[in-house]
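Recall that a protein's primary structure is simply its ordered list of amino acids. Everything else, from secondary elements to tertiary packing, is in principle encoded there. The following example makes that idea concrete.
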Amino acid sequence: MSKANARNLGEVFIRLSFPLKASNNGSAWQMEKPFWLICVTHMLVEINLLIQVALIPVITREFNLSLLEASLVATVPSFVQLLINIPSGYLADRFSVKHLLFVSMLIEGVSGLLVSQTTSFWTLVLGISMLKISSPLYHISGLSQVGKLSKPEHLNRSMGIHNALGSLGSAVGVVSLAIFLSTLGWRWTYLFWGFPILAWGLIILTSPHLQVERRIEKKETNKRDEPQKWSLILSSGFLIFLIAIAVREVGATGSSTFMTTYFVNRNLSESTASLIFGLGPFVGIAGSLSGGYLGDRAGARKTLNSTIIGCTASLLILSLVSHVYLLALIYIVYSFFSNAMWSPMNALVAQITPAKGLGLGFSAYFFTDGITTSVTPTLAAGIIELSGISLVFPFSAFFLFSSLIIFQFLPSPRKDT
C-alpha cells in the first residue's frame, strides 16, 4: 500500500470514528489535535482521582484512625473542589482553554509532589485538597471545549472518547499505587506521576493547536444576553437534571469511596484490593466508549436509564457475594455501567444549556456533583460504623434507583439525538 493510500485510509477512519469539526484547510489529523490534547490532559488529571479512596484502609492503619476520621481524606478535598467549581465556570467562558489546562496541570503536578512528602494525616489532607483544585479547572473548560468542537449527532461519542481517556488515567493511577504499595510505598505513586504531569502542562502551554473562540464570543456577547443565558441554564428542566445528579452521586460516591475497604474486610491484602479496584477504570474505558456509542444510537436519556439500572443491580448483587472471584467479577460489571453513565450525562449538559453558557452549565453541574461528593463519604462512614460495611451497597443502590425515577421527569433536551 502506498503512503498516499495509507494516509487517505487513515483520514477516512478518523472521520468515521471521531467526526469533529475540521478546519477549512486542515487535514483530518489536524482537526483532531485540539480534541486529543484535551483528552490526554483529562487522562493525566484523573491519574490521582481514585488513589486517595484506595488509600483509605492504608492510612487508617498507618495513622491509627477510625473509619470516620479516615473518610476526611475524601470529604475535605471534595469541599475544596466544590468551592472552585463556580469561579471555574466563570473562567471557562472568558479565558483561553490552553491557559486553564496549563494551570490545572501545574496545580496537579506540584500538589502531587507535595503529597509525596507528607508525614502526617492532616498534611496529607491539605496536599490532596490542593490537588483537587485542578479537577474543576480542567473539567469545566475542557468539557465546554469538547461540546463546542463536536457535531450534535456525534456529541455522545465524543464525550465517550473523552471519558475513556479519563478512565485510562484512573486505572493507571490505581494500578501504579498497587505496585508501589508492594514495593517502595504509596508516597512514590504521587512522586512518580508529578513530573510527567508538569511536563505535559508545558506542552499544552506551548501548543499552537488549542485555538479558542471564547474571546470572540466575549466581544459578540451583549450584556443584555447575560440574564437570558442564566434563565436558560436555570430552567426547570436543568434544575430537575441537577437534582437527579445530586441523588445519583450520593449512591455512586458511597460505593466507590469504601470499595477497597470492603475488599480488605473480605480478607484481601491492601495491594490486592487496590489492584482489583484498578481493574474497574480499565473496564471503564470500554464502558465509556459503549456509553458514547449507545448515546449516539439510542439517545442520551435511554442510555443513562439503562446504565443506572445496571449499576443498581450490580451493587445489590455485590452485597450478597463473598468469594474473591465473584467480588472481582461483579465489581467489573458495576464499573462498566458506572463509567458508561458519564457520556450521556455530559452530553445532556451540553444539550440542555445554551452554547454560549456551556461553561456556566458545566459549572452548575459539577458544583451540584461536588456538594454530594463532599458530604457522602462521612455520611456513609457513619452508617458503616453503626451497621457494618455490607450495608453501604444497598444504601448506594437505593439512591441510584431514586435518581432513575427523578430523571424520568426531565423534559426532552432541545438538541437530543
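The chain is about 80% helix and 0% strand. Residues 1-31, 212-223 have pLDDT under 50 and may be disordered.
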